[in-house]
C-alpha cells in the first residue's frame, strides 16, 4: 500500500495521494479503513482495533482508582490521569513535524495535521459538507437530525454536542480553570483565555481579503466575512428568521422559549446571556472599567468606550452606499439608510403607527403605557427615557458639554452643536427631490416639501383654517384669544408675534439699518426696504452687467428671470394667488397677504403719535405725515 518517490516519500495506493511525512501518511491510511469488527457488548459501539475496544470498555466501569495529586480529580485510566496532569504542568510532548506547533495530547496533534493536508475524507450525505474527522461528521449530523443526546444532570437541559454540555456545566460549578498569567483573570474555557491573551499583545493576525480589516480571532474574521457575503445560514424553525451566526440563533430562540437562566442577585432581573447579566450588574456596582486615555471618561461597556473614542479621532467607518455620508456608529448608518428606503419595519400593535427604528417604537409605546420611569431629583419632572432626563438635568446644572471649535459657543445637546456647525461650514445636506433646493436642517426640508404637496397638517380648532407649519398656527391662534405674550420693556405694549415686537423696538432706538442701494433711503425694517425697492424699476433691483431676459410682448429687458415672470402677469392677466375665504385672486403674493388682513382684522402697524393701528403700512405712513 506504500511506494517511495524522490519528491514525496509516501504514496497511497488506494487514492494515489502523496505525503512527505510518515506520520501524516499513516493518519491518512486510517481514512480508508471502514471496517470495525470489534463491538462493545454493553453499548454496541464498534471499533477498528481491539486496543480501542479495550480502552472503551473501561468507560462503563465506575471505578476511578487514579487520582490527581494537585486537584484530587479521579480517573479510570492512568493515561487519562497523565493527560490531565499536563493541564497543571503545561507539558506539551507532541510536536508537529511541519510547523513545530506543540500539543498536550496526541489526538490534538492528529487533528492539527489535517490542517496541513487539507484532507476532508468524511462527507455529509445530506448537505455535502466535508470534514477531516469522523467525529466532526457525527456531531454535524445531529444538526440535521435535531438529536440532543447530551443532557445536563443538574437542570436536564439537552445539547447536540458534548463540548456544549461541558461549557454549560461550568455555569453550575462556577469553575474557571484557565488563568491569565499577566493579569490573573480566570476563564471557564481555554478558548476564552486565548482570546483574552491577545488583548495584552494587541496582535491581529487575521486579515479580511475584501476590505483589509484585521482581527485577533479567526472566529471574528469568519463572522465579519458574512457582512460581505450577506449569508445567513442559520434559520429559526418557529418564525423563519435567518441569522449569520449560530450564537445569534441560539439567543433568538430564547425569545420563543422565554428562558432567562441568568438572574441578578440585587433586583432579580433575568437575562438570556451571562454577559448581559455581567453588564447589568455594573448598574448596581457603578463599576466603569473602561477609561478613555484622552479625556479619562469611564464607561461600563467596552463598545461604549470604542464609540466614544471616535469623537476624538473623528473616525467615521460606516458609510452610506447611496449618498456616501459617513457615520461613527453602525446604528446611525442603519437609521440613516431608512431615509432613502422609507422603510418602517417596526409597527405599534396598539395604534398601527410604523417606525424606522426599534428605539423609536419603544419610545412611542411609552405614550400608550403612560410610563415615565426616570424622575428629576430637582423638580420631580418625569421622563420616558434616561437620555431625556440626562439632557433635562443640564437645565438645572447649566452644563454645556458640547463646544464649537470655531467660535467656542457651547451647547447642552450634541445635535444642537452639529446643527450650529453647518452655519460655519455652509453645509446643506438635505435636498428636495422635487426642485433640488438644499437645506441645512432636516425640518426645514420637511416644511419646504409641503409647498409641493400643499399639505397643511396644523388646523385651527376655532375656525378650522389649516397651516403648513405649527408656528403659523400658533401665531394665528392669538387672533382668536387676543393673547399678546410679547411685551415691550420700554413702553409695556404687547404683541402677538415676536417679530412684531422686534419691529416695534426699532421705534424706540430710531435705528435704521436697512438702506436702499439705489437712493440711499434708510429703513428700520427689512420688509419696509423690500416694499420700497418695488417703487424703483424692477430691472434695477439686482445690479447686473447684462439683462438677459426679454418680454415677448413688449421687449422689455430684465436682469432676473423671476422679475420677467412677475412682469408677464401684466400681459397674461394671470393671478395665481387666491384667497381661500372669498376666492379673490391676486398677481402678487404680497397683495394677497395684505388682502387677508381684511378678513382677520389684523392691524400690525401702529402709529406712535396717535396709537391708531392699520392693516397696511402705506396707511400708517399716510397717518404719520398728516
TrEMBL record:
It comes from the Eukaryota. It is found in: Nucleus. The keyword Coiled coil does not apply. GO terms for biological process: negative regulation of cell differentiation; regulation of transcription by RNA polymerase II. PROSITE patterns: ZINC_FINGER_C2H2_1, ZINC_FINGER_C2H2_2. InterPro entries: Znf_C2H2-type (IPR050758), Znf_C2H2_sf (IPR036236), Znf_C2H2_type (IPR013087). One of its GO terms (cellular component) is nucleus. Belongs to the krueppel C2H2-type zinc-finger protein family. This is C2H2-type domain-containing protein. It comes from Larinioides sclopetarius.
Amino acid at each position: 500500500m506504500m511506494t517511495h518517490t524522490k519528491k514525496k516519500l509516501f504514496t497511497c495506493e488506494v487514492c494515489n495521494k502523496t505525503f512527505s511525512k510518515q506520520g501524516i501518511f499513516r493518519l491518512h491510511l486510517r481514512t480508508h479503513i471502514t471496517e470495525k469488527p470489534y463491538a462493545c457488548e454493553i453499548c454496541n459501539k464498534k471499533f477498528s482495533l481491539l486496543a480501542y475496544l479495550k480502552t472503551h470498555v473501561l468507560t462503563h466501569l465506575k471505578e476511578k482508582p487514579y487520582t490527581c495529586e494537585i486537584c484530587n480529580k479521579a480517573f479510570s485510566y492512568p493515561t487519562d490521569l497523565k493527560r490531565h496532569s499536563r493541564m497543571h504542568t503545561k507539558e506539551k510532548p507532541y510536536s508537529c513535524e511541519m510547523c513545530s506547533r506543540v500539543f498536550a495530547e496526541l489526538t490534538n496533534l492528529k487533528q492539527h495535521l489535517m490542517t496541513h493536508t487539507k484532507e476532508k475524507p468524511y462527507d455529509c450525505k445530506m448537505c455535502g459538507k466535508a470534514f477531516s474527522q469522523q467525529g466532526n461528521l457525527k456531531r454535524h449530523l445531529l444538526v440535521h437530525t435535531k438529536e440532543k443526546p447530551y443532557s445536563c444532570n443538574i437542570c436536564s437541559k439537552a445539547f447536540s454536542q458534548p463540548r456544549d454540555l461541558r461549557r454549560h456545566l461550568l455555569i453550575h460549578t462556577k469553575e474557571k480553570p484557565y488563568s491569565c498569567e499577566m493579569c490573573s483573570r480566570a476563564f471557564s474555557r481555554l478558548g476564552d483565555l486565548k482570546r483574552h491573551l491577545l488583548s495584552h499583545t494587541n496582535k491581529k493576525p487575521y486579515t479580511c481579503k475584501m476590505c483589509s480589516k484585521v482581527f485577533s480571532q479567526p472566529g471574528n474574521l469568519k463572522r465579519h466575512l458574512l457582512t460581505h457575503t450577506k449569508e445567513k445560514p442559520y434559520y429559526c424553525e418557529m418564525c423563519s428568521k435567518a441569522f449569520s451566526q449560530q450564537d445569534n440563533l441560539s439567543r433568538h430562540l430564547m425569545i420563543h422559549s422565554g428562558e432567562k437562566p441568568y438572574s441578578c442577585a440585587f433586583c432579580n432581573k433575568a437575562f438570556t446571556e451571562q454577559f448581559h447579566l455581567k453588564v447589568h450588574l455594573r448598574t448596581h456596582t457603578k463599576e466603569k472599567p473602561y477609561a478613555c486615555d484622552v479625556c479619562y471618561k469611564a464607561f461600563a461597556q467596552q463598545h461604549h468606550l470604542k464609540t466614544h473614542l471616535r469623537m476624538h479621532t473623528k473616525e467615521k467607518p460606516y458609510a452610506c452606499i447611496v449618498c456616501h455620508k459617513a457615520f461613527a456608529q453602525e446604528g446611525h448608518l442603519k437609521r440613516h439608510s431608512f431615509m432613502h428606503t422609507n422603510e418602517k419595519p417596526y409597527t405599534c400593535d396598539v395604534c398601527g403607527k410604523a417606525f424606522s427604528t426599534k428605539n423609536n417604537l419603544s419610545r412611542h409605546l411609552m405614550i400608550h403605557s403612560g410610563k415615565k420611569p426616570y424622575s428629576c431629583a430637582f423638580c420631580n419632572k418625569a421622563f420616558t427615557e434616561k437620555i431625556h432626563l440626562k439632557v433635562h438635568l443640564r437645565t438645572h446644572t447649566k452644563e454645556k458639554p458640547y463646544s464649537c471649535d470655531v467660535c467656542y459657543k457651547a451647547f447642552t445637546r450634541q445635535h444642537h452643536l452639529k446643527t450650529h456647525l453647518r452655519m460655519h461650514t455652509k453645509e446643506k445636506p438635505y435636498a428636495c427631490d422635487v426642485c433640488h433646493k438644499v437645506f441645512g436642517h432636516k425640518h426645514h426640508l420637511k416644511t419646504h416639501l409641503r409647498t409641493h404637496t400643499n399639505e397643511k397638517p396644523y388646523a385651527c380648532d376655532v375656525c378650522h383654517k389649516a397651516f403648513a407649519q405649527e408656528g403659523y398656527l400658533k401665531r394665528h391662534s392669538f387672533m382668536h384669544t387676543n393673547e399678546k405674550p410679547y411685551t415691550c420693556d420700554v413702553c409695556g405694549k404687547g404683541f402677538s408675534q415676536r417679530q412684531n415686537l422686534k419691529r416695534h423696538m426699532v421705534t424706540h432706538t430710531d435705528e435704521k439699518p436697512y438702506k436702499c442701494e439705489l437712493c440711499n433711503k434708510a429703513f428700520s425694517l427689512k420688509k419696509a426696504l423690500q416694499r420700497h425697492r418695488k417703487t424703483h424699476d424692477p430691472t434695477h433691483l439686482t445690479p447686473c452687467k447684462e439683462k438677459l431676459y426679454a418680454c415677448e410682448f413688449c421687449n422689455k429687458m430684465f436682469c432676473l428671470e423671476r422679475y420677467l415672470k412677475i412682469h408677464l402677469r401684466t400681459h397674461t392677466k394671470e393671478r395665481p394667488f387666491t384667497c381661500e375665504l372669498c376666492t379673490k385672486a391676486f398677481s402678487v403674493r404680497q397683495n394677497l397677504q395684505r388682502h387677508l388682513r381684511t378678513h382677520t382684522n389684523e392691524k400690525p402697524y401702529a402709529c406712535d403719535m396717535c396709537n391708531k393701528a392699520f392693516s397696511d403700512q402705506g396707511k400708517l405712513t399716510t397717518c404719520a405725515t398728516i
